[in-house]
What we know:
This protein is of the alpha+beta class and 212 residues long. The protein has six helices and eleven strands. It has helices at residues 24-28, 44-62, 75-89, 104-108, 148-164, 186-192; strands at 14-17, 20-23, 32-37, 65-71, 97-99, 123-128, 134-140, 166-167, 178-180, 198-201, 204-207. Helix 2 packs across helix 3. It starts with 13 loop residues before the first strand and ends in a 5-residue tail after the last strand. Keywords: Antioxidant, Oxidoreductase, Peroxidase, Redox-active center. Residues 4-160 form the Thioredoxin domain.
Amino acid sequence: MSTLRLGDTAPNFDAETTEGKLNFYDYLGDSWGVLFSHPSDYTPVCTTELGTVANYKPEFDKRNTKVIALSIDDLASHKGWVKDIEETQNVKLNYPIIADEDKNVSTLYDMIHPNEDDKATVRSVFIISPDKKVKLTLTYPPSTGRNFEELLRVIDSLQLTAYKKVATPANWKHGEDVVISPSVSNEEAEKLFPKGFKEIKPYLRMTSQPED
Ligand code: BEZ
């Protein structure tokens, strides 16, 4: 599989997981999705990441987003490790972890970077929209735990773009002013944003964050 790029269709797959066998597209349904890999079970950074995502599950739910993790360790290993995650991170695991022993999914999503480590996945993230398009790819090194607040922020931004025709500026946080997408004319903007907008330049128009 060549590298997946933004706008590509996220490949479907069947997989063994800690919540039983599943089909990825069936699991996602009409939701947004986050597929993320970690290098291996029983490692410290991964333990904190998987616990953090379990704690954030209500935030992903609020955003109509299903999460699913992956490593190439087997199911027995995952099941044993989940007990440690629950004990040490004070949480109940509430999403599936794929046991990608045959490397089917990690190959489809190019999650093994052999010059970094040929026996484990790196920390990949894919955000997938309801039409199964890849909307974000992110690759972190094994030694750096990801910032899941940032993933929520990107999901908020992607959903604002998909549903409200706005984009989000540098360092934007939920509730702050947003940027009107360049494809929206001023006439259309007047209808879409009744509270008004500020034209700093013809291509730089700000408005308050649209309500849900
Ligand atoms: C970890 O997952 O904890 C880890 C993986 C590779 C290097 C350092 C830490």
